[in-house]
C-alpha cells in the first residue's frame, strides 16, 4: 500500500551529486558477528533506520534518503543514494521512479547489516518503457553502499517490475527471500541473495483475473516460514474490485484462500500481527476506496492452515469516532504495534481526507485496541489537529494521517505513534494508557514515510 506522495517508506552522500554531508563516528564500529536483529538497521549499530523517497529535485529518476536511528528515534545523520551512486546498478534517468514505490528491508546476506530492496517500476530497459527494475542495496558500517540487480524473469514493456515488494523467509531455509510483482504475477526469489547475485530458485505465483499491486508478508500460521498476501485488482461487472490472496510459505509456496475487499483503488496498506494473541497472525488491510471512498479495514483472522473468518472495521463500527462519509478514506494507512505494553498489538488507522470542524481534508488518526477478542472499536482513540495537546490547527488539505506508523522508538515497551501531515509530521508517545496527547513532538518532514512496515 503506497501513496505516490511518499510511501509511503541522511553522511558523505553516496550519490554523484553531494546532497547531505556525512559525519562518521570517531571510531570504527566492529563488524557484527550475527545477522542483523532489525532488517532496517543498515549501519549495524543496533538502531533501526529510516528509508524514504528523496524528493528535493536533485535526482532525475528518484533516490532514497536514509536517516540513521538513535536510542531516541530518528537522528540527524543521513545519506542519499540514487542510480549514479558508486556500485549501484543502472543510471539515474528521468521517469525511472527509482525508490518511489515500495521499499523493503532484510539482512539478505546475513552479515549483520540490514539491506534495502527498492523498486523502479518506471525503469526503461532497451526499448521497453516501464519494464521496471529491482535493486538490493547493501548495508555497511557507513550505511547503504553499492547494490545488486535482481534478475527480471519476465522482461517486457509496461510490466512494472518492482511495483510491489515483500521480504521474508518464505521457504523456511533461514535466509531472507524477496517477492516482487512483475507483469501480472508475483515472482519469489529463493535460495539466497548476496552481493554476488541472486539464487536461481524462483517461483512464479499467479491467479487468474487478479492483477497484483501490493504484497504483505508475515507469519499467519505457526510454522517457521513467512506467509505472503497478494493484493490486487479484479474486474467484476465492469467495475474494479479488490481481492486479497493468501499464499502459504513453505519449500514450495502454496496458494490459499481469497478475501473480497470491495471497491478498490490502485494501492493498499496492510500489516500482519497477532491482535488477539492466539499464536496466529491476523491480516489487516486498509482499503480507502471502499464504499465510495468512505474506507474500511478488513481484518482476516489467522489460523492453523491460514486465514479464516474476516471482519470489516469502519467509522461506523461501535466505539470508533466519527461517521463513515464519502471521501474520508479511512484505511489510507495502517500500522500495528503495542501502544500500552499489554502484549496485544494495536492498530493505527489513517483517515487522511476526514473533514475536521468544517475544514476539508484535514485528516486524522484512529488507534484501535487489540485484545482477547481481536481488534475492536471499543476503547479506540482519535487524534486530529484540533485534539488537545496536538500542535497546530486543522488545515485544508493537510491530510494528517496519510501515513501512520507505530514504533517503540524510546524503548519503554510502548509503541509511539508517528503521523505524517502536510503541515508538521508528529510523534505521539505511547504509555501504559496507550497513545497520549501529552509530550507530542514534531519530527522532520518526510521521516514518517521512511518507517518500513
SSE sequence, one letter per element:
EEEEEEEEEEEEEEEEEEEHEEEEEEEEEE
Distance from N terminus to C terminus (CA atoms, Å) equals 10 Å
Which ranges are low-confidence, i.e. pLDDT below 50, for 5 or more consecutive residues? 1-28
Oligomer: single chain
Q: Which geometry do the CA atoms define?
A: globular
Strand order of the largest sheet: 4-5-6-7
User: What's the count of strands?
Assistant: 29
Structural class: mainly beta
- What value does the Rg take, in angstroms? 21 Å
Average pLDDT reading = 90
Number of distinct helices: 1
What does this structure look like?
- It is a single chain.
- The protein is mostly beta strands.
- The chain contains one helix and 29 strands.
- It has a four-stranded antiparallel β-sheet with strand order 4-5-6-7, with no helix packed on it. A four-stranded antiparallel β-sheet has the order 8-9-10-13, with no helix packed on it.
- A hairpin with a 2-residue loop joins β9 (177-182) and β10 (185-190).
- The longest helix is centred in the middle third of the chain and has 4 residues, at 290-293.
- The N and C termini lie close together (10 Å).
- Mean pLDDT is 90; it is low at 1-28.
List keywords for this structure.
four-stranded antiparallel β-sheet; 1% helix; disordered N terminus; globular; 453 residues; mainly beta
Compact summary:
The chain is mainly β and 453 residues long. It has one helix at residues 290-293; strands at 50-53, 64-70, 73-81, 98-106, 115-120, 133-137, 147-149, 165-168, 177-182, 185-190, 193-194, 197-198, 201-205, 211-218, 227-236, 239-248, 254-263, 269-273, 282-287, 296-300, 310-313, 330-337, 346-351, 364-369, 376-383, 403-407, 416-420, 426-428, 441-442. The radius of gyration is 21 Å and the shape is globular.
Amino acid at each position: 500500500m503506497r501513496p505516490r506522495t511518499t510511501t509511503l517508506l541522511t553522511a558523505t552522500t553516496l550519490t554523484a551529486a553531494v546532497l547531505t554531508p556525512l559525519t562518521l563516528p570517531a571510531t570504527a564500529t566492529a563488524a557484527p558477528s550475527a545477522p542483523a536483529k532489525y532488517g532496517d538497521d543498515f549501519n549495524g549499530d543496533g538502531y533501526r533506520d529510516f528509508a524514504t523517497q528523496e524528493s528535493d529535485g536533485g535526482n532525475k529518476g528518484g533516490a532514497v534518503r536514509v536517516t540513521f536511528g538513535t536510542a531516541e528515534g530518528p537522528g540527524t545523520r543521513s545519506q542519499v543514494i540514487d542510480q549514479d551512486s558508486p556500485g549501484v546498478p543502472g543510471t539515474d534517468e528521468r521517469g525511472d521512479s527509482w525508490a518511489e514505490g515500495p521499499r523493503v528491508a532484510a539482512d539478505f546476506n546475513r552479515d549483520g547489516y540490514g539491506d534495502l530492496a527498492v523498486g523502479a517500476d518506471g525503469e526503461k530497459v532497451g526499448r521497453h518503457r516501464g519494464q521496471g527494475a529491482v535493486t538490493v542495496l547493501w548495508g555497511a558500517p557507513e550505511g547503504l553502499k553499492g547494490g545488486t540487480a535482481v534478475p527480471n524473469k519476465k522482461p517486457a514493456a509496461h510490466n512494472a517490475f518492482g511495483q510491489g515488494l515483500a521480504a521474508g523467509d518464505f521457504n523456511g531455509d533461514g535466509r531472507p527471500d524477496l517477492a516482487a510483482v512483475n507483469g501480472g504475477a508475483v515472482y519469489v526469489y529463493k535460495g539466497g541473495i548476496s552481493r554476488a547475485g541472486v539464487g536461481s530458485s524462483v517461483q512464479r505465483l499467479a491467479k487468474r483475473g487478479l492483477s497484483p499491486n501490493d504484497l504483505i508478508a508475515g507469519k499467519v500460521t505457526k510454522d517457521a516460514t513467512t506467509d505472503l498476501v497478494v493484493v490486487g485488482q479484479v474486474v467484476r461487472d465492469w467495475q474494479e474490485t479488490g481481492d486479497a490472496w493468501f499464499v502459504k510459505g513453505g519449500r514450495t509456496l502454496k496458494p490459499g484462500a481469497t478475501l473480497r475487499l470491495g471497491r478498490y483503488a490502485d494501492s493498499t496498506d496492510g500489516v500482519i500481527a497477532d491482535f488477539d494473541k492466539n499464536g496466529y497472525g491476523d491480516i489487516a488491510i486498509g482499503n480507502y476506496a471502499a464504499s465510495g471512498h468512505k474506507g474500511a479495514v478488513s481484518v482476516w483472522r489467522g489460523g492453523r492452515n491460514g486465514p479464516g473468518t474476516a471482519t470489516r472495521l469502519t467509522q461506523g463500527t461501535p466505539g470508533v469516532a466519527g461517521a463513515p462519509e464519502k471521501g474520508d478514506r479511512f484505511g489510507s494507512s495502517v500500522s500495528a504495534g503495542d501502544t500500552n505494553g499489554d502484549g496485544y498489538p494495536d492498530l493505527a488507522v489513517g483517515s487522511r481526507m476526514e473533514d475536521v470542524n468544517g475544514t476539508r481534508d484535514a485528516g486524522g488518526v484512529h488507534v484501535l485496541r487489540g485484545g482477547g477478542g481481536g481488534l475492536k472499536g471499543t476503547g479506540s482513540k482519535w487524534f486530529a489537529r484540533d485534539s488537545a495537546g496536538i500542535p497546530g490547527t486543522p488545515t485544508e488539505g493537510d491530510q494528517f494521517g496519510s501515513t501512520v506508523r507505530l514504533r517503540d522508538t524510546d524503548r519503554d515497551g510502548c509503541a509511539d505513534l508517528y503521523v505524517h501531515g502536510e503541515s508538521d509530521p508528529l510523534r505521539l508517545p505511547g504509555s501504559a494508557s496507550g497513545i497520549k496527547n501529552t509530550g507530542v513532538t514534531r519530527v522532520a518532514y518526510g521521516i514518517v514515510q521512511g518507517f518500513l512496515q
